[in-house]
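tool_call: predict_structure(chain=1)
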Amino acid sequence: MQIALLKATALFYLVGTVLYLHFIVKLSDRSARLGRMFLLIGAILHAAGFAARYAEAGYLPITSLFESLSFFALATVCVFLAFEVRYGLRVMGAFVAPVVLCFGVLSALLPGEVRPLPPVLDSWWMPVHVLLLFAGYAVFAVAFGAAIMYLLMEREVKGKRLGVLFRRLPSLDVLDAVNSHCLKIGFPLLTLGIITGSIWASYAWGSYWSWDPKEVWSLGTWLLYAALLHGRLTAGWRGRRAAILAIVGFGTVLFTFLGVNLLLPGLHSYANMGG
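tool_result:
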């Protein structure tokens, strides 16, 4: 039941994404309202499915590729809905909802049976570490959407075309503010996620740091976002440079999350987690 519920949410995310894309093409307020409603219903069903899986498994179900992709989708849609309410940026749904949809569809295509928790993951540090990281990743996903919007809007302004996108996208200052806000929220979450992961590693493997591929790429991702935050606070990095780095940063997040686990064998590989 919980597997069917988790996979069914992909349908709601699909409809929500289509409605948001229709909004940006036709500027239909009704499409935007319906898009938000479908994403919200999808998030509620998704959370219910996640809770049911937790009850069945007896542990936080974020240990397999199916569970991780599914939870990434849930975390991203929740953060997006919060930012949409905070900034009133309905148009952002056309750029963030497709990310949610991709994660939801990919997870729906994977086997979702509940497996016994590997002994190495049987620690209360696991949910703390994973929830912090996924919360940070979700915020960076929203920053990615805002950065794409910024570059598109900048092209409209510099090209003096002032076409369809100009009439639909927020101002460059608003988009840069969203990007900055995401960085100030996401970076501390990422930092705490890495710190708690190191503490957990000391209990699980006897060492705070073992230069595992996942750890190396996590450090690289942290350094990139640290450089972006430092540049914003001290060197006045704004606009295009900040937007490009936000896009590159989210690319490193995706590789750290998926690429490393699937392509570079190590202690964090899904194969080593029963996934």
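agent: The chain has a mean pLDDT of 86. Proceeding to next step.
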